[in-house]
Amino acid sequence: MSQQARRMVVCVVWFAVGVLLVWRGLPYAGLRESDASARDFTPLADGQTWIALACALVLGLGKGFTALKKGARRAARQIVDHGERAPIWTVFSPFMILLVALMIGAGLALRLSPYDPVVKGWVIAVLYPAIGVALMIGGLLALKVEPLARKG
């Protein structure tokens, strides 16, 4: 695959996961019904929903244009280092795969751990959309950012 095609893979994967996270956060924000059989959280209501989503947007924009921009540059460096016609499995580094596994585990822990249902509603209603927005931004940036400079 060409370098641009591998950047497109990064873009599509990050953007799709971002959309999924926003979608998964909407029941907690009170904007759609939960698909969980047993609801162990209290959805936000009225003004709380918009406060949470405003916080998520601010956090997502901040994380997207800082940490995820650096992540996109790191992904671009990985792609450039593997040359113009590298196989698709070289798109994501082992570090990135480990990081994703840890993030999935942390997300599951946040959703499945037994803690105050009101707090859980707030935490997920803010964090999931925030991370989702950041991933969508990072995915789009992955298409055009300059690769991160090599160390040393």
Tell me about this structure:
The protein has 152 residues and is mainly α. The chain has one domain. The chain is 69% helix and 0% strand. The protein contains five helices and no strands. Helix 1 packs antiparallel against helix 3, helix 1 runs antiparallel to helix 5 and helix 3 packs across helix 5. The longest helix is centred in the N-terminal third of the chain and has 27 residues. The radius of gyration is 17 Å and the shape is elongated. The two termini are 28 Å apart. The mean pLDDT is 93.
H/E element sequence? HHHHH
Strand content: under 5%
Helix content: 55-70%
The total tally of domains equals 1
Mean pLDDT: 93
Q: Largest sheet at a glance?
A: none
Stretches where pLDDT is under 50 for at least 5 consecutive residues are none
Described by the principal axes of the CA atoms, the overall outline is elongated
DSSP helical segment count: 5
Please compute the radius of gyration using only Cα atoms.
Answer: 17 Å
| Alpha carbon gap, first and last residue | 28 Å
Number of strands: 0
How does the helix and strand content classify structurally?
mainly alpha
